[in-house]
Amino acid sequence: MHDEQRDERSYRVVVNDEEQYSIWPGDRELPGGWREEGTRGDRETCLAHIDRVWTDMRPRSLREELARPRQGG
């Protein structure tokens, strides 16, 4: 990326009720259904944090469903 195109914005890591992660510009109001996770910084810092902490990409509801014991047979 050229210096004149460098993204100088501040971002924050956000998470939804399904424990899915994303980044959002630090100066914009969060969209409905998302909350701040606590990490802020440049784009690369936020994406690197998500890579470290979001190790299971399945939505929370699916993980919980798969963890329930099966009945019957």
Automatic annotation (TrEMBL):
GO terms for biological process: siderophore biosynthetic process. It holds the Pfam family MbtH. It comes from the Bacteria. Coiled coil: none annotated. GO terms for cellular component: cytosol. PANTHER family: ENTEROBACTIN BIOSYNTHESIS PROTEIN YBDZ. This is Protein MbtH. It comes from Streptomyces malaysiensis. The lineage of its organism: Bacteria, Bacillati, Actinomycetota, Actinomycetes, Kitasatosporales.
